[in-house]
Amino acid sequence: MDDKKQQKSISYAKWGYIFILPFFICFFIFSFIPLLDTIRYSFYEYYRSGLKEVGPNFVGLGNYIALLKSDLLKYAGNTFILWMIGFVPQIVIALILAAWFTDARLKIHGEQFFKVVIYLPNLIMASAFAMLFFTMFSNAGPVNSILQSLGWIKAPIDFMGSVGGTRSLVGLMNFLMWFGNTSIMLMAAIMGISPELFEAASLDGCNHTQIFFKITLPLIRPILSYTLITSLIGGLQMFDVPQILTNGQGSPDRTSYTLIMFLNSHLKASNYGMAGALSVYLFIVSGILCFIVYRMMNDDGEKKPKRNKKEAVK
Amino acid sequence: MAEVSLKGIKKIYDNKVTAVHDVNLEIKDKEFIVLVGPSGCGKSTTLRMVAGLEEISGGELYIGGKLMNGIAPKDRDIAMVFQNYALYPHMSVYDNMAFALTMQKVPKEQIDKKVREVAEILDIAQYLERKPKALSGGQRQRVAIGRAMVRDPKVFLMDEPLSNLDAKLRNQMRAEIIKLRSRINTTFMYVTHDQTEAMTLADRIVIMKDGFVNQIGTPQELFNKPVNLFVAGFIGMPVMNFFEGCRLLLDGDKYYAEIRGVRFELDAFQQKTLKSNGQKPCDIVCGIRPQHITVGEGDLTATVEVNELMGSEYNIHARSGDDEVVMVIPTVGLATDVSMGSRINFTAHSDLIQLFDKESGNNLIWYDAGSAANNAPVCKDYPF
Amino acid sequence: MNNKKPSNARSIIAHVTLIILSFMCLFFFYILLINSTRSHAELQKGFSALPSSHFMENFRAVANDGTFPMLRGIVNSLIVSGCCAAICTYFSALTAYGLYAYRFKLKNAAFTFIMMILVMPTQVTAMGFLRLITKMGMYDTLWPLIIPSIASPAVFYFMYSYLQSSLPLALVEAARIDGSGEFHTFNRIVLPIMKPAIAVQAIFTFVGSWNNYFVPALVLQSKDKMTVPILIATLRGADYMNFDMGKIYMMITVAIVPIIVVYLFLSKFIIAGVTLGGVKE
């Protein structure tokens, strides 16, 4: 490229590097170094007990094995169950709503109002939302008080005392927080389909249900699987809601204790070795999920809606 | 107010793909040069190298006698009009036009005076406060030109400025550019793929293909003296007729072109040139422009397939053996029956028959191997 | 046309479902608002659907509480979220522009890399992050909540998509010919064009940062540095049964309502933003 006769260059390449530099410096310092540090200490026995600091002593895969022997798998199971309770109704309702909103013949009145309302919980501070649920579903809280005054129940229901109750509350909150967002995303995906296709299908004799299952669903499959994966990654990171609702205990009996709550308790206890090993496990799982997302975004270059940050971050 | 000189300019991408090969071009002060060619021929890349938007991979560029290779675009004293206008959408027309002068820290009053003066010339004074979005395509085009004009550049670069306009507006703007040119009187480099624009605007045309310059010349030269099949086919409407399977014969000391067994004795100039080149008999392709065909005489025959009356002339599509021949025949004084299906005979003056070497595609008369402008490689394929 | 009836039935089902869902979304906030107007004694008596008159009283109780400095928390949250929104959008736009407008050797590698870390959870680096900021002396300050937002792959990706759809490179070249320097072009030409994308992402980043709990919970220690979510968590951890319930509802209200109010004003814009740039042809 460079001609020796030229002293100066009018190549703009260096500006490209300059402009992306802050991002990479910041990523390097605040993500990459911590990641390496995390991985390194995952091989060490290193914790604080009282004022005494133990380690770092190299223990190889000791932490990893200790984690597996502890309740790690149970917590992974909890996380998965809590995610499922929220995700299944979320995706079903979102699909139905998206289909309704985009159905031109089904005139939804106040469409904008409904959109605003169903998206609202997504912006709510998860911790405050959980705190609100905690007070409302407590034994003396308004929900029990309403049910009692309606005469539906005699004694207050101890929502937070039962496994099913706590898990359902977490699921309900996750559902409320995310179904509006997913509906709007799917709506956009369906609106990206040429209306002529729907017209052709109805001329071919499909009814609404058939159109939905034979035309709409197959065509929005890419974004559906994308929703699934990003929601799964979000579920893996579930923390705020169960943490606040159960005050970090995962009660009753750690049945709503999630992986990140586990990580958080190790971090709070300054058990760097265990926290490191747990992070590496999480890193591997999310790495696999990331890889799937990456493949999906690059594979078919056809017109495919891509999601914005919100779902990916939460 | 400056001459531009390109000496062996090259563009190589990523050390691999050569987009522009060795362009040599001397543009005189106040000359209007049009770079023309099919898409991907390197004409835009050449222009962008002159602008300083692309780095020059090899060769030297001089503007007004100064070497410009490593100079930033803003210091080259050029202005450019882009195909999509490239108006800053968030600025008013006034701010768009004033932007370059603001960058140069020209005093406010002076900017104001200049912008209003140019707006007056271009008849956009009433839109100065509007945003580009609120303007029609033609008005945006004027603003883009105006933005370039306020700078009084040494060289005015235009990259397909009219190709986004509809046909009617394009004709109108083309006329305006001609008017404009007589007013601002500077050096122009203009890129287009449209031969009509090239023919009507240019002092000289540079015709490019695959990164090579094929010919540089006035519109008349390109029309009458195309150096190869590509140039011959690219310039002229309707496209020149090419007759395959022809031969150049040497009988005694006279050259003949043989088209479908019919001999044409070449005229004196052609004879002289071929003789001085020491041309041997060979297979050739003969090219005859539709406008140069005479109907009703000669020994070539054809059957009329389509006959389009264009007012003062007929466009006749006729079949002659394997070739489709297009003829443009004046309606006045036409004695022959040219209705569909009728059989006609036709001929052309031998000095209007272009002779192309079948092997190289080069014109046996006009191709000049020594010219820097004719450095294109063997070009056998037709331009269409 | 011939099946008017089933269509009507469908319409009724759809509207009823939507109303139920909307009720579920709004019900809790309604209770929250009602209860924040009632005194502790009233709340003990059971639920009432009508508001009472203790709103200001509760609010004053929250404002003057030294154990839970809610107003201080809001100020901290505003500082963190505001700074995050500003630098995150600016640097994401800068990065996106750098990768979009320039040709350079590592361009594809850099882009691929960012896409790879796009969905990496922040939690996996939390341990090293905590140690790092402790070593850097930033433990228990607001800095570690703000600075890392310079590298936000998801916002970058949004900006990049937006640039692809709305910034012709000829514009940048025109600016170059007009004599504008590269940084000047970015600040004066590119940023104004990206305004819609920046506004949307600023809102989302602000809200995300406002609601963020995990990282501040690790980093912040002293009361006067705490952000709103941390205060809520501390509230949950305290012996809550002895509290004035009206005050608790008021605290939650104070944490949630500002965002809701802003949302109601910008709802149209925000909802359009959920899919803007996200869905592209």
Q: Classify the secondary structure makeup of chain B into a structural class.
A: alpha+beta
Shape of chain B: globular
Question: Average pLDDT value of chain B?
Answer: 88
Largest sheet of chain B: 6 strands, mixed
Largest sheet of chain C: none
Alpha-beta content class of chain C: mainly alpha
Number of domains of chain C: 2
Taking all Cα atoms into account, the compactness measure Rg of chain B is 24 Å
CATH superfamily of the largest domain in chain C: MetI-like
Tell the overall outline of chain C.
Answer: globular
Largest interface: A-C, 114 and 108 residues
Overall number of strands of chain B? 19
Q: What is the strand content of chain C? A: under 5%
Number of helical regions of chain B: 9
Number of strands of chain C: 0
Widest sheet, order of strands of chain B: 6-7-8-3-9-10
Model description:
The complex is a heterotrimer of chains A (314), B (384) and C (281). Chain A is mainly alpha-helical. Chain A has one domain (70-313): MetI-like fold (Orthogonal Bundle), CATH 1.10.3720.10. Chain A has 14 helices and two strands, in the order αββααααααααααααα. Chain A has a two-stranded antiparallel sheet with strand order 1-2. In chain A, helix 4 (111-119) packs across helix 7 (163-191) and helix 10 packs antiparallel against helix 13 (272-299). The longest helix of chain A has 31 residues, at 72-102. Chain B is an alpha+beta fold and 384 residues long. Chain B has two domains: 4-224, 3-Layer(aba) Sandwich (Rossmann fold), CATH 3.40.50.300; 239-374, Nucleic acid-binding proteins (OB fold (Dihydrolipoamide Acetyltransferase, E2P)). Chain B has nine helices and 19 strands. In chain B, the strands form four sheets. Chain B has a six-stranded mixed sheet, with helices on both faces. A five-stranded antiparallel sheet of chain B has the order 13-12-11-14-19. In chain B, strand 12 (254-259) and strand 13 form a beta hairpin. The longest helix of chain B has 18 residues, at 167-184. The model of chain B has no long low-confidence stretch (mean pLDDT 88). Chain C contains 14 helices and no strands. By secondary structure, chain C is an all-alpha fold. The longest helix of chain C is centred in the first third of the chain and has 32 residues, at 4-35. Chain C starts with a helix and ends in a 6-residue tail after the last helix. Chain C folds into two domains: 4-61; 66-238, MetI-like (MetI-like fold, Orthogonal Bundle), CATH 1.10.3720.10. Chains in contact: A-B, A-C, B-C. The interface between A and C is large, with 114 and 108 residues.
